[in-house]
Fold this sequence. Notes:
Blueprint: E1 4-9, E2 30-36, E3 48-57, E4 63-70, E5 86-90, E6 93-96
Antiparallel strand pairs: 1-4, 2-3, 2-5, 3-4, 5-6
Amino acid sequence: MNTKKALIEWIPKDHGGRTKPPLGTGSPPYTTEIRFIDGDRWPVFEAWSLVVIKDEQLSSELSWTADVRFLVKEAPHDTLCEGRAFELYEGNKCVAR
């Protein structure tokens, strides 16, 4: 599948995010819903899961580089491209950008 490198900035709990980031390693990998920030949003009924595997922690535990890919082969892999910003959601809560 189409794996890309991404910079992940986890949202702190006091700003509505998680208590702490997931481990990002091991099995099963961290997988959650992706939504792109630009105007090309998917319809509400169409959601895709992104697999996020921590590569390196940067300046803090809230800042990572990661390998990311869609969970299933039927996903729109061409939409995951360099420079395109996205958010990660757990339910209705945005947990990372």
